[in-house]
Amino acid sequence: MNKGVIVGIDIGSTKICAVAGIMDQVGKVKILDMVEEPTQRGRVSNGTVVNLEFTARDIDRILTKLSDKADINIQNVIVNISGEYVEGRSHQNFLTRNDSRTTIRKEEIEKLAVDIRKSFRPTAGNVIIHTFPQEFIIDRALVPENPIGRFGVTLGGNFFLISTPNDPHIALQQTIESVGVKIQDNKRFVPLKIVHTLFSPLADAMSVLSEIDKKLGVAVVNIGGDTTEVAIFHESGLRHISVIPFAGRSITNDLVKAFQILPDHAEKLKLIMGDVPPNEVGKNDIIKIPGVEGLPDKEIVAKNVSIIIEERLKEIAAMAMAEIMHSGYEGQLISGVVLTGGTANIRMIKDVFDQVTNGMNIRVGNTIRNIGESAISNIVDPKYATVMGLVLSGFLPLDERVPQEVIWGNIPESQMSNGSNGFETRNVGRTKEVEPTQYEEPASGGLFGWLKRQVQATKNDFGDDKGYT
């Protein structure tokens, strides 16, 4: 195996997809091959692995196929992480420099980031998975760019930390580690190693967003099978995340209930009629659904199908817009909204979001950045934005202002010792509540649970000028 090969695995509620890539000579990522299989029922729910054993078997089979097709060994993987209770909050901290006559060093940035992570208190039962810089503060002045090389007495920063419940996080790790490496002529079991995990819409951002998008302000909306995930960027920093418990499968379930048909037939209806807005469907157009178990064929009014799809898409768009408003960045996202996930392939979705968001710039994320030669022709499909982003995250930095090990939660080598490194930490412990905290009653899922978390988050916002509590 070439040491440069990176394998990303997107474990979703509707599909499990693995992609292998390698950096080419001109600095682009070459896609070697891809293997995709539908997620079997009972394996993954709301973005969380619920059956470790059978999901591990599926992943093992997929990676074996990928290893054979691409003629590579697979020992390390990058995996997406999702789930209804992933949450994010901003946190601020400062350190006082002992020698203000020297410029700020990389080690001081690392020290600040590590201290912010240590002083942050996530929701009980959660584990921190990402630490992203938003902006730095030098002697009370906001500095959005890398502060290395500047002078100052105090160095502070606003960081955005993402956490997830520990149990599903451990379940994901155990699922991957129960799969053996794919090495030719390997005679003993060696577990796969996770290089890192990455929250799904942040992987999408790696694929479909430019640095200009993040600077101007943009929302990535990943509409998957069970959940819709939102990530908002502004002034190059991550500002808000949310997971909404409604997505593409909600549309399918609506069609099943409305017309009393099988889920497979409903899924096909969604794919066909999702391309035709209600005003383009004839009043007398009929779709015939094959009967099952000796029952007669069922005739369905095509216009009704299109109306149901459009109305559910409006609900999903309204929830995404509610998150943009809750984040405080309504009217500030010049680059608008970028739609990813399989449901983004529904043709009418762009027009629906345009209506609901009152004319924000809306585009489908079907342009994968930093990809060079590819053995796969359909990698620009928005349903592959996550897995492509996972591969890209193995080669490219998520944020160049801090060492990547800080983002993933590892301790930089410079911070391994107990010395002060020439500066003192001043922990102000100021946390901005950006994402609703996990509701303590585990039964509060679905729309009702989502609404209660919005209300709770609103109560936590005291509304001071900087939003800190």
UniProtKB/TrEMBL annotation:
Membrane topology: Peripheral membrane protein
Keyword Cell division assigned: yes
Pfam family, any one: FtsA
Signal peptide span: none
Residues of the SHS2 domain: 6-208
UniProt key word Cytoplasm: no
HAMAP family per record: FtsA
Function according to Swiss-Prot or TrEMBL: Cell division protein that is involved in the assembly of the Z ring. May serve as a membrane anchor for the Z ring.
Protein's recorded name: Cell division protein FtsA
Source organism: Emticicia aquatica
